[in-house]
Specification:
The protein has four helices and 13 strands. The protein starts with a helix and ends with a helix. With 301 residues, it is α+β, with helices and mostly antiparallel strands. A hairpin with a 2-residue loop joins strand 2 and strand 3. The protein folds into two domains: 164 residues, Trypsin-like serine proteases (Thrombin, subunit H, Beta Barrel); 105 residues, Thrombin, subunit H (Beta Barrel). Strands 8-9-10-13-12-11 form a six-stranded antiparallel barrel. A six-stranded antiparallel beta barrel has the order 2-3-4-7-6-5.
């Protein structure tokens, strides 16, 4: 009985915190819950974990339910297809190659998801109204990965407003444009645990990986016998010896960095060669390179 009361009290405190944060949002018709107020790391709103527990990141281990409330499952044919993140009241950021059919009715966004194999009482499905793929995206051709142009990024607009709570919350954008090289970040998703896995992970996974300077990254690929054009709009992250990486099913999901007590999405899982192979780190679309493009659309409401 005491345990039940404690849980109820904790949930009441979380709801009070949500209400307090939402009071900070200007309630004028000209300031929607999108754009820089919502997603700048200087904002008091975005990138906050409203359910906090002690948690370690080792290598591809479970998150706890609600740890990354901005992470969503982009679904096709009622199955997990790709990841994404909440960046506005009606906006999801993902990878262009995940939605290149450009047909909104082909996809549904599930928000508040944690375990793909069992119903979560707090998860909700949202229909897609519009798919916006970056105009410079030319597609990922597996036989010619060396020609990728780094514009593998897209926005999904939901038909209805996303109900924000402790399991559904927007992430921040980084406030400064720098390389993050030499720093560690966390990649999150339901992708395969390794290249040979038959299915996706049941529970949302996280892995801590280092961000590599692009020049070093290009050299690693060259040593592996792969010539890759890795420009400034791409983030390279992983280990020289492999072992930890995003994998199939993680595409479109976030590469996260904690900046000033806010979580920011600094990269979007794009592509790579295999999963966690030596000298072949993962490649991510650098979000700061597309900040103006993202705001162009998210400020339309």
């Amino acid at each position: 009985m005491m345990k039940t009361t404690s849980i109820k009290n904790q949930k009441s405190l979380v709801l009070l915190l949500i209400e307090w944060i939402l009071l900070l949002i200007p309630k004028t018709s000209t300031t929607p819950l999108t754009g820089s107020f919502l997603t700048s790391s200087s904002s008091p709103v975005c990138g906050r974990q409203l359910l906090q527990r002690s948690s370690k990141v080792v290598g591809g281990n479970d998150t706890y339910d609600g740890e990354f409330p901005w992470t969503v499952s982009v679904r096709r044919n009622d199955h997990h297809h790709c990841g994404g993140v909440i960046v506005g009241r009606k906006w999801i950021l993902t990878a262009a190659h995940c939605v290149q059919s450009r047909i909104p009715s082909n996809f549904v966004v599930r928000i508040g998801e944690f375990d793909l194999q069992r119903p979560d009482y707090h998860s909700r499905d949202y229909a897609i109204d519009r798919i916006i793929i970056h105009e410079n995206y030319s597609g990922l051709i597996k036989s010619s990965l060396s020609s990728i142009n780094g514009a593998d990024i897209a926005l999904l607009k939901t038909k209805t407003d996303i109900l924000m709570d402790e399991h559904a919350w927007p992430v921040c954008f980084p406030s400064v444009d720098h390389t993050f090289a030499g720093q560690e970040a966390i990649v999150v998703g339901w992708g395969k645990r390794n290249e040979k896995s038959e299915g996706y992970s049941e529970r949302l996974q996280k892995a801590r990986i280092p961000i590599i300077e692009n020049k070093i990254c290009r050299n690693w690929f060259k040593l592996a016998g792969r010539e890759m054009v890795i420009n400034e709009k791409i983030i390279c992250a992983g280990f020289r010896d492999g072992g930890r990486d995003a994998c199939h099913g993680d595409s479109g999901g976030p590469l996260l960095s904690k900046i000033d007590d806010h979580w920011s999405v600094i990269g979007v899982v794009s592509t790579g060669i295999g999963c966690a192979r030596p000298l072949l780190p993962g490649l991510y679309s650098r979000v700061s390179s597309y900040h103006k493009w993202i705001e162009k659309y998210t400020k339309e409401e």
